[in-house]
Amino acid sequence: MENFIQQSSIDAVTCPACGLLCDDISISADSAGKLKVTSNSCAKSISFFERPVKAVSPRVGGKDTDLESAIAKASEILSKSKHPLIGGLGTDVQGMRAVMNLAEKSGATIDHMNSKSSMRNLLVLQNSGWQVTTLTEVRNRVDLLLVVGTDIVSYFPRFFDRVIWNQASMFGQDTSTREVVYLGGQNLNTKPGTSPKGIEPTVLPCDKAQLPEVIAVLRALIAGKTLVASSVGGIAVTDLAKLAERLKAAKYSVVAWTGSALDYPQAELTIQNVTGLVEKLNQTTRSSGLPLGGNEGDVGAYNTSTWISGYPFRSSYRQGFPDYEPYLYSTDRMLAEQEADTFFWINSYAPDRLAPAHQAASVVIGHADMKLDHEPEVFIPVATPGIDCKGTQFRSDSSVSLPLKQLRSNTLPTLTQVLSAIEATL
Amino acid sequence: MLIKLKGGKVYDPAHQIDGKVMDIYIRDGRIVAQPNNAEPVNQVYDLSGKVVMAGAIDMHTHIGGGKVNIARMMLPEDHRAHPAAHTEMCRAGCGHAAPSTLTTGYRYAEMGYTAAFEPALSPVNARQSHLEMGDTPIIDKGGYAMIGSDDFYLRSLAAKQDQNAINDYVAWILHASQAIGIKVVNPGGISAFKFNQRALDLDELNVHYQVSPRDILKSLSRAVHELGIPKPLHVHGNNLGVPGNVETTLKTMGAVEGYPVHLTHIQFHSYGTEGDRKFSSGAAAIAEAINKHKNVSADVGQILFGQTVTASGDNMRQHANAAFGSPHKSVIMDIECDSGCGVVPFKYKDQNFVNALQWAIGLEIFLLTDDPWRIFLTTDHPNGAPFTSYPHLIKLLMDKSFRNETFARLNLDAQAMSTLAGIDREYSLYDIAIMTRAGAAKLVGMHDRGHLGVGAGADITVYTDVADREKMFSKPDYVFKDGELVVKNGQVVKVTWGKTHTVKPEFDRAIEKDIKKYFDTYHTMNMEHFKVADDEISEGGRGGVIVQECKGRREKTA
Fold first, then answer.
1. Which of A324, A362, B354, B408 is the most exposed place for a label (fewest CB within 10 A)?
2. Shortest Cα distance from A417 to chain B (angstroms)?
3. How far away is chain A from the Cα of B273, in angstroms, using its nearest Cα?
4. CA distance B142 to B433
5. Taking the model in full, what pTM does it have?
6. Rg of chain B over CA atoms, in angstroms?
């Protein structure tokens, strides 16, 4: 564990509060263990690290109990279950390994709290693949950033500071000349897209529901097609044609999106058109997609699940071997259809994220400060990776995973300890 | 606990033992000398008539790291067709071309393999590689750190830093990424692709750094040698898959100026441009050159027919080949100004002219290369075929009539372009033991593996000697890992966790000051986090780090 007695603050702390996984954070602590972000903070890191310390016991039936009794009750519930669902999955790689073991042993189905947005990307990966890049490449190479349907900063606050308006770049580029274009969405916070020299970004707003047409038109223009229409989604086709020319002229354009912001049915088809236009651009110049994600550990969860079982989440061991069905094994659908008779909700990072309201949420394992809209049969508080225990987390771009530090002493068990103890009784 | 393996026919090329009937003793995970009569033997395995070899070692197989996991993620169809259910001993998994980590470990052990090396561990992604290998049971593992298109190295080379600085950086990378060797993929080409270059020949310059693949090969092969790293520089050459690349490969052998070099999946780099279709076998020239250059070794990267997936650090060539993908999808990535990757599913067809000739070229290389200590049995899993096809490949090498029968069923135009049917050579069990055990261990630098001498780790495989070599090598009678019986009759009977083999050459640690400054200026991660700690590898009781001997830093270059 990092030692605050010898040092007034701990540097190079990795922050798992969003998928950027900034590891340049400094943290100090008071005698009660309350943490403070002292440098390179953002709204997300402050809310993650500075949450008041809460001492809570495990509970069974709403009454405080000891850990052994809570584990025994959770084991009993799981052993009686015919089809358990383990959802949430807000955890790190180590916790996810334990989830996979427990799911394998109990024939459970697994799904992540962010799977609705992650799936939009995973379906594209599985259907057509894509050409993508990573944060250090963006930081050193991008000359034109096209942002689709989001402002990025609502999800990833330090994105522009860290990888667009950085001062030095490996290849001598004057980063302040980088161009930023926002395409789609309304009333976005586009201020962070203004260059340090005050050059404003290009903003081409439209309702997100119209992004499918807008992106399709942009792709067609890049492919050299002529269009009859003069406007699409309220955007002049001539403006999109200008954008197409800028993309073709750029040496290393990056097209960024986040699955969560593209919140409409079949958004994966829009993403596929984005990756399709990137593919086309790469016939003559260089261009890369940048799918942004990784919040609540989703990228780490689906990577770990994939190497252990072959599939990302929305997979199931109910037949004794891993099985994957992105439609059938979604948490919302399974709960609505009452296909799972037991629901475990795991959430170590984001205590404000509620479990989907459902009477089957029988066992909740997670953050000590977890918000609950109803009392589950069993609640077990566990250590938060990156604060209460060490861990490993994946960054948005999948290529980088970073160690998480333990920043304070505490008596909370890790998720691995709890799940392994449950598994041992089965 | 003393175990006696009694009366097996032993093939131990490291000690020139070729089928001699003898006893082997195991105590505490190691092979020991025959104890005195007073010591009780706890367990005896009667191996009369059985074939005994050291556990097999796969010196080049993509089993862990970003691109492998992308391959898994993008191929649910591969997994659906090959589920592996939960059993009493084994956890569930799946997969054929890109199996899950658990299934990978079980299947390797069930074929008598006790170690496997991930050859393209991207240093910036090393943590993930080790996490995946940590979830690969039973077998030992290790990785070759991939450099040569990373900005720090290329700017050092461009700035004409002296060889000592290069050596220090190479050593630092090995420590940070917990690797046992150094690999270069399409030297300088992964970087060149990011500057929109679409091809890079041996003497072509990377447009930004103004250095050539030849400069890179010379500097890295020398660094590896001067640091005393046993594993020669592992080279995936320029122009993979391009007709005519045999010339590049032959020149690459000379580019290292006599330093040891290993040319990997050389089959993919042995293509000529003769014939109506401008695609021909360069195998004879390649084998002749390997026979001549004693500093050169190679593994074949044999292709076998069927569905697989190609996963490579070579984003430049994979981007060029993406159109041939089947099913038609691909992932191409630029990674952290450090490396890249390309994943393209592929189906090799025996009636396809090019695929059939690729198959023949691989076998020609195997059979025309004289010294089994310098040629290795790989399919470049999963690029040429999944590793589970090794027993079939061994049969092709050991059984001429089986080989010729298979050849006779291939695309006729390809048959006409190959000399394969005229090659009479058949590999012996001794040759196979060299390629897959003694030679592989020697090449990688696993000093206590790949042989059955006193002191060796007791990784031992026992087979029934049957004429059908595919059957024989598919299902060993017994596999011992560190002296424990882990497989019986081709089935896992005990699940253990192997170790991770590394080298840690000495170097001048002052270089870290420069590297730290570089990370702070340009990167998106802290330099300390680039390093994978020992306890991350041993975490959860999944193994641990073994540091293999490295002959220490040699004299500084004047």
1. B408
2. 11
3. 25
4. 21
5. 0.97
6. 22
